[in-house]
Amino acid sequence: MSDGFPNKPKILRGAFIEFGLSLPPLVVVFQFNPVQLTRSRSLSFTFPGAEDASGGSGHGAGSRRDLRAFHGQFDDLSALQKKQLITVQEETIGFDIRLDATDKLDDGATITEQFGIAPRIATLEQMVHPKAESLIGAAVDQLLGKPKGFSFTRSPNPPMVLFIFGRKRVLPVNINAMNITETEFSADLNPLRATVAVNLTVIEGKSVPYRYSKAMSEAMSLLNLANIAEIANVVVPG
Predict the structure, then answer these.
(1) pLDDT in tens, 19-69
(2) Domain count, the chain
(3) 186 vs 102, 111, 123, 233, CA distance in Å?
(4) Is residue 2 domain-resident?
(5) Residue 186 placed within a domain
(6) Calpha distance 58→60 (Å, rounded)
(7) Which has more confidence, 95 or 48?
(8) Backbone φ/ψ region at 145: left (φ over 0), alpha (ψ -120 to 50), beta
(9) Which domain holds residue 204?
(10) What is the mean pLDDT of residues 194-223?
């Protein structure tokens, strides 16, 4: 059925999708895209010979060198950049997922009328439970005999999840935290509205999804060269 706007652009939706073969498959397409993403990456800096947190080098407090003193030894920033020891932490992402049964109730969706948004919430919850705890997966294993390539209940870890947000971000993630706030209920006490706050850690490495997303990010950085003329407005010491 047409909504009266034939030229209306298609809006892509974000999603969590389990990576790999599994029964039942875990897929949650966001009903509403997050209003904002909070992305964070931390770096720690030290220098050769620095004491670790335990003070294992055996030197007294008076002989300890701090990072500021180490920086003070260099007037050549290029040399300093090479000498510093840097640990880069994996990126973390946080956002809220909003769930609302109103539209589907207006459309007469049978499952929503009976259960509200409980199926969506339950699928999100399964993404943070060890696969070995899946009762349905165990039943499927017994029925099918654990077909090769499927990962029903064999793993003691939660499933591997892809966070998909547009064409340029297909990120393998660990879900560090999930806080569910249910705010409205049906007569049967099924949730009708909820906000799910999630915190993710991006799994960086050589996996195809991550390398694809990293390549897209680097391509976006190259496109920023179109703004290189703006450097004329920056005062750079000679």
Answers:
(1) 986 777 899 999 999 999 999 999 999 998 876 544 554 443 333 468 888
(2) 2
(3) 11, 13, 20, 59
(4) no
(5) yes
(6) 7
(7) 95
(8) left
(9) 15-40+92-220
(10) 97
